Input
Amino acid sequence: MNDSDDDIYSFATTNNNAAPSSPSLSSPANSFSATGPPPSSNPYMATAHAADSSSLMNRPMTSIGAAGFKDDDINGAGDSGHTRGSAGRVSAASGMAFSSSSRNSGGFGNDALSSFIQAGGASLGGTSFQTRAPPLKKRSEKSPEHMALEMERKINKLIEESATFCAKKDFTNALERAKLADKKERLLVKFRDEKNMKEQQNFDLKFCVHFTLAKMYHANGMHTEALDTYNDIVKNKNFPQSARLRVNMGHIYFEQKRYPQATKMYRMALDPIKPSEHRGIRDAIMKNIGIAFIKMGQYHDAIQNLEQIVDPEHNHDVQAAFNLLLCYYAIDDKQSMRRAFDLLLKVKIPGLDQDDDLDDERNTLANDKLRDFLKDKQRQHYQHILKAAKLVAENIEQDDWEKGYDWIIEQLRSFCLKHEKSNLASEMEMAKSLNYLKHKKFHEAIQALQAFEKKDKKLQARAATNLSYLYLLKSDLKNAEKYATLSVDHDKYNAKALVNLGNCQYLRGEFHAAKDTFSKALSAEPDCIQAIYNIGLVTKTPELSQYQESLQTFQRLHSIIPESVEVIYQIADVYRLLGDNDAAADWYNRLITRVPTDPGVLYNLGQIYSLDKDEAQSLNFYLESYRYYPINMDVITWLGLYFVKHEVYEKALQYFQRACQIQPNNIDWKMMVASCYRRIGSLHQAKKCYEEIHLKHLDNLEAIRYLVQISQELGYAQEEKDYREKMKKVEQKQIRQANRRAESGGGSRPTSSAVDDDDTLSRQVKNFNPISLSGQQAVRAGSGSAELTVETQRNGTPTAATSGAPSPGRNVNDKMIEKDDDELLMGIGDDYLDQLYASNLPV
Output
């Protein structure tokens, strides 16, 4: 029977697809997702179709086709052309309908059909035929069944809209649609209850609505509401599949760092799953339990769960194997670390053969998403292996890290025999050479890096960048420039090598060439912060004095790394060089909030306020600088002379005594100490100091003169007489020396032996000028005249490392911020040295 010829009413198909689940957590995985009720699950739809089917059975047939009918033999069709059914009706053998024209030999012709119709029908095998059948009545659109179906359709549409907004990260609108769907679903339930249609309740739709609402609560960070909704689902006995939603509840507890509750939910989700079924889901839940135990520090419990996932037969989870190794590392189980590393090497990527080369362009199709997916999996696998190798290499052998590296390298060489493109063994050899630097074995590091000269050119270039760094540390500019040039020749767009080459040029005094090289590095890698920083430094040198360009460069770098104290310091220092003390003070104050104990910054602030005649602020910052760094001679001099100027000699005495300890051979500090004692009335102490000076410096006329004066005040007549005689002899000696100098040099001869009435302290106070200290100020390391940064590559990204190589002309009292500043940093061009404290390296 061909239904297309009949006027039969059929319901529109509703779309009951459920909202896709929102992104799951980064650590726990495999959130359970639910789909909406399938169209066949609607009991009302089944009833409607059944009713239509029964009504069709009672309708008279209006078309028939049989292979035995012919145009000229219609009368015999009832006897020979048809096969009768069990009810006496004719069964259509070929499904051909009556036609107004003869189509083939198996159908009625025009004449036969006309005679058949004119006869008003015929009896064929006991079945009567009519020429026309009355049409079926359409179902009323206001019937309760139709209204319920329409409400379901609108609910499904809201669920789809919520899923669409969620996919677009518009979680607010997604939640609104989910709430509206939940509201309409409640109205639907109430409507069916009122119309006595309880047996037609759609529990699949109810599950889909509640699940979508819970997911949207979770996506919007409304954890309490999400948990309440999930609890309503899992407690409903009409949802037998809801137990797995406890995984999602565990994710929420995990995000809240409520790890015991998360573990409980994961275990409750795991219990209904049989060990022999759904192994993938079971392993994923157990991995989540293991991660929760790791977060709680319960490494032994985590190991028990992870070991059930990582087994030799079904070992496909790289992350689980890596986490298992981390747990063994945390409990310092060296033998188990070896075993876990071996299991990590045996992990097989599903869908990828061992010998399959994913980097072979000849086997790559355009837009091959499967191959791209497998390449990402392979890349992640290699990264996990390399991280694990670096982690355990130094710890799998007791007190011998070199043997640990050798064992790891041997294992990776065996691995590389099956995966030739991985180069993991060479990567670990590079890491071993750089680890020599951490242990201050520079000769071994150089030998290890030089061994790469016989290997692949790419590895040669990387080793050359590191060798350039090492030779820069040793001040061997010839070899440093040689290897930097070698690396640049291999890849002229290698920003790391260009930065190192620029530093070589800088140290040779070729500032313009260095600036051009740094600019090339910046062109090759626009976000190379070391190149930007070095451009700012080289333009700040006195030879170029391009302060405005330097300021713009550092401000650009500050927008990239706003928390860098080095960049903030450089901006303040450039403002100081430009003479903008207000802006300089503003940036120094910003800096002091991040490094409040830095003596150089405190000194600079004190100097700026001293130039602005703000002595109160200046004194405060100088005192703070002295407290954190009490050997800065500039700070000591300023504080001592400041208190002398204000006639607070007791405090000035403390600073001059500290200066004597720092520079014991400088007679001026002793003279200032003696003068302070004399001015506060401690004549005996003053006399003792002057006598010490006189014993070491017999021709010091000032000391003898004050010894005469103090002896007279104390009533030591004999000593006064002796010192007067010595004073006359010294005066005569100085006159003779002056005469000889005058005769030899043509100068005027002295006419008097008078001595200057001012002592050393008075002369220092008269000559005291804060501006005169600016040439030898004790600022932070790298105040801008001769310091550079050379970058370190880490995981392909340059990062700052430090070196303690002092620049020419640096004040001995300079102090660094946590030994991390803009001083000369010779860069590591590799990506396997996490931290290099080069301040302990020889230069």
